[in-house]
Every structure is written in structure tokens, then in C-alpha cells.
Amino acid sequence: MTETLDVNIVQLPAMRVACVNGFGEEPEGIAFAKMREYMQAHGMRSDDGSARLFGYNNPNPTPGSPNYGYDVWVTVGPEIQTEGEVKVFDFPGGLYAVLRIKPVTGEEIFENWQKLVAWREQSQYRGASHQWLEEHIGDVALEFPDLVMDLYMPIRA
């Protein structure tokens, strides 16, 4: 029996983002700690919808190593510039299949990515080459089990 997923097709607009990277055995925690500090220093909030948070593996895990990287983005205005290890750039956006999840564990995130890929393989859409993303909904300080995420898989018609 095939599971029915509530997938939305979204055109993510172009965005200016500030990016930090964490690297290690649990890079998400490292990257989010850096982002919380950066946002606090700049008076930014994500719990009120004024800024959006996205993340993705960078670099991806490799066999034989417990270490990998994770980038976290926060949307910013044109006045924000690169400073120190926080890099600012313009992301062009793109077409995405989006699945909202409320994971309790990292394993559930992986499982839902697999379900989303399986959904795409049975859909009218094809894979695309723009960045895969995980949007973290709400406050930058949220963690499991309170975390809500949208998984953004790049697609094309």
C-alpha cells in the first residue's frame, strides 16, 4: 500500500540570505547555535514570520566518516552584508515539491526525504539541480520534538 503524502508545489521566490556552516558529528546544532547568536546580535526574529530559516547538508555525509556539514540560512534585507564567517548572497529560488513534517528524530527527517523522493518518482515532475532545502518553521531555538519543518525538493515539470 502506497502512503498518500500531502505535497504542495511551490515556486520559492528569490531571496537574500545570510549563511553559517557547522561541521562535525552533529553539525545542525553547531550551525543553529551560530545562527541564533547572529540573529540575536542583529535583532532578527523567525518566530514572528519576519525572517525565514532554511538548512541543508554541506558537505554531505561520506561513508567512513561521522563528520559532515550543515548550512543554515536566514532571509535578510539588502542592508545586510557579509561579515566574518557569515556569508550573504542572493538565492535565485526555484520550483519545489514541499512536504511539512513534525519530526521527533533526525531519522524521521531522513525517512520523510525518502518518501518525498518516492512521491516524485510517481508524479509528473522530474528532479532539478537547484538546492534541496529544509525550512525550519518558527523560532530559531526550537528543537525536537517541537520542531516543524518543510522539506523542499527541487523539481521541474
Please give a structural write-up.
The model has no long low-confidence stretch (mean pLDDT 94). The protein starts with 6 loop residues before the first strand and ends with a strand. It is globular and about 45 Å long. The chain contains 2 helices and 9 strands; from the N terminus they run ββαββββαβββ. With 157 residues, it is of the alpha+beta class. It has one domain: Multidrug-efflux Transporter 1 Regulator Bmrr, Chain A (Alpha-Beta Barrel), CATH 3.20.80.10. Strands 1, 2, 3, 4, 5, 6, 7, 8 and 9 form a 9-stranded antiparallel sheet that branches.
Question: Which features would summarize this protein structure in a list?
Answer:
157 residues, 2 helices, single chain, alpha+beta, globular, nine-stranded antiparallel beta sheet
